[in-house]
Amino acid sequence: MLQTPHQPPQAAVVPSQRVTARDQDGPWHSEAVCRRDEAGLFFAPSKEPTAARLSREEAAKRVCARCPVLVACREHALLQPEPYGVWGGLTAAERRVVLARRRRRDAELQKTARPAISHIAAAG
Ligand code: SF4
């Protein structure tokens, strides 16, 4: 079984089971920079002050910026979705924004596709 790229510290508020079927699909974990160092940057310890959180998250993002599997990691975190920690250079709050944008975009695409499909059906 593959390990998650960055292991949450014991004190972090994260689900205990983080390895999923999707994690086992690809080899991207083996190339994760956060497997080698600075794993404690990626998850909040309990009762972390805001300034410390912002500083830690920025440090985690700097690690992600030099990671060769950033895109795969980010998509994993968006598709799961991962509710905690920095994944693929995005915090949990930033991932929620991306997911909300995707939902809006998908809804718009469905709205624009429906008239075209009914037009084709009527002509056929
Ligand atoms: S993008 Fe960041 S969180 Fe994801 S594997 Fe790389 S270093 Fe870890």
The amount of beta strand, in percent, is under 5%
Structural class: mainly alpha
Backbone CA Rg: 18 Å
SSE string, helices as H and strands as E: HHH
How many β-strands, per DSSP?
A: 0
Main sheet characteristics: none
Instruction: Give the low-confidence spans.
Output: 10-22
Name the ligand types. iron/sulfur cluster
Shape: elongated
Structural features, described:
47% of the residues lie in helices and 0% in strands. It has helices at 50-65, 70-79, 92-123. It starts with 49 loop residues before the first helix and ends with a helix. It has a domain at 16-91. The longest helix is centred in the last third of the chain and has 32 residues, at 92-123. The chain is mainly α and 124 residues long. It is elongated. Residues 10-22 have low confidence and may be disordered. The chain is built from 3 helices and no strands. The structure holds iron/sulfur cluster (SF4). Iron/sulfur cluster binds at residues 5-6, 32-34, 42, 63-64, 67, 69-70, 73, 86-89.
Which features would summarize this protein structure in a list?
124 residues, 3 helices, mainly alpha, binds iron/sulfur cluster, elongated
Topology:
Blueprint: H1 50-65, H2 70-79, H3 92-123
Bound molecules: iron/sulfur cluster.
